[in-house]
Design goal:
Elements (H helix, E strand, L loop, with lengths): L2 H13 L4 E10 L9 E5 L2 E5 L4 H17 L5 E6 L15 E9 L4 H12 L4 E6 L2 E4 L19 E5 L4 E5 L3 H10 L5 E6 L5 H4 L6 E4 L12 E8 L4 H11 L4 E6 L3 H8 L9 E2 L11 H16 L3
Parallel strand pairs: 9-10, 9-12, 10-11, 12-13, 13-14
Antiparallel strand pairs: 1-2, 1-5, 2-3, 4-5, 6-7, 6-8
Helix pairs in contact: 1-3, 4-8, 6-7
Length: 311
């Protein structure tokens, strides 16, 4: 379930004149199933979209919000969920971490603001908003400026943001590129697929990227934006085109640059290049014994998520 789906569910409900609630994880520590920024849309009939961690902890928050919506008296609130037994704020889980979940009702009058969030997220833009004792409001910094709660402190206003924080360029439109874009599109990355060969069916008919670019790989250096929030994965049709793509991006500082292949192939592709940039992953992906395009996609996507999360 992507973040966009949560905002779309809220917009759909508000368009129908229904009152809904937005719940968001505003802080977390340790082994918590819900991490800062996780969203959940709730209606009078229950969960509409998203999750704040699942399990019995989420079920308790969900029941509280549904009851308030049905009674017509749901007020903004916040709860601390401690995932270990024997404490006052025990959530019912035993994973050892803790998280804070804030919520606010959204009335139909908020429809245009929610639509603004939908439009921004759909275009790959960051958009800020706040949630706290005064409710939910559009506006605020567009970074992940989460004001983490501290212990039993009274709820405060939290500055949040929606929209993809990282952009991934999938360079190569073959079978692996198709499988990888499909996985990444479900993980709240902004996905750009690039191919230089004309008429590649897996590329031309791929519905998963947010954007498709047809261009010579040698020119990637002028269009791939530098920065830690930009990832690039090289999955072209062969070693020669891999080398061209790497040449184009070698001096571009990125958050992640990965290339697929065996160690023997990579030794040839990387020979003579001098010192490797710190962000280069070759071979890319978490080793899971992957062979098929789908398995490779899982391996690479897992590594990208780990890098995005600072692991």
């Amino acid at each position: 379930m992507t973040e966009l789906a949560v905002w779309e569910a809220l917009a759909t409900a508000l368009e129908a004149g229904r009152e809904v609630a937005l719940a968001v994880v505003v802080g977390s520590r340790g082994s918590s199933p819900g991490h800062a920024g996780a969203l959940m849309a709730v209606g009078t009939d229950g969960l509409l979209a998203g999750t704040v961690g699942g399990g019995v902890a989420e079920a308790g928050v969900l029941a509280r919000l549904v009851e308030g919506l049905r009674a017509g008296d749901l007020a903004p609130g916040e709860v601390q969920l401690t995932h270990r037994p024997g404490v006052e704020t025990a959530s019912g889980l035993i994973c050892g971490g803790e998280q804070w979940v804030a919520w606010a009702p959204l009335e139909p009058a908020r429809l245009e603001e929610v639509r603004a969030v939908v439009a921004a997220v759909a275009e790959g833009q960051r958009i800020g908003w706040t949630i706290g004792p005064a409710g939910w409001a559009l506006g605020g910094p567009a970074g992940w400026a989460v004001s983490e709660p501290d212990g039993e402190a009274a709820p405060s206003s939290h500055a949040m943001a929606s929209g993809p924080s990282h952009e991934v360029w999938v360079i190569g439109g073959g079978h692996v590129g198709l499988a990888l874009t499909r996985v990444l599109a479900t993980l709240d990355f902004w996905v750009v697929a690039a191919e230089e060969r004309p008429g590649v069916a897996q590329f031309e008919e791929n519905p998963w990227p947010h954007r498709r670019v047809t261009m010579p790989f040698a020119e990637l250096g002028r269009v791939v934006p530098p920065g830690e929030a930009t990832f690039a994965v090289v999955v072209t049709a062969g070693a020669e085109s891999d080398a061209v793509a790497l040449d184009a991006l070698w001096d571009t500082p990125l958050g992640y640059l990965g290339v697929m292949g065996s160690r023997a192939k990579l030794a040839r592709v990387l020979a003579g290049r001098g010192e490797r940039p710190a962000w280069l992953h070759a071979p890319m992906g978490i080793p899971i014994g992957s062979h098929t395009p789908a398995e490779i996609a899982v391996s690479v996507a897992a590594e990208l998520v780990a890098v995005r999360n600072g692991v």
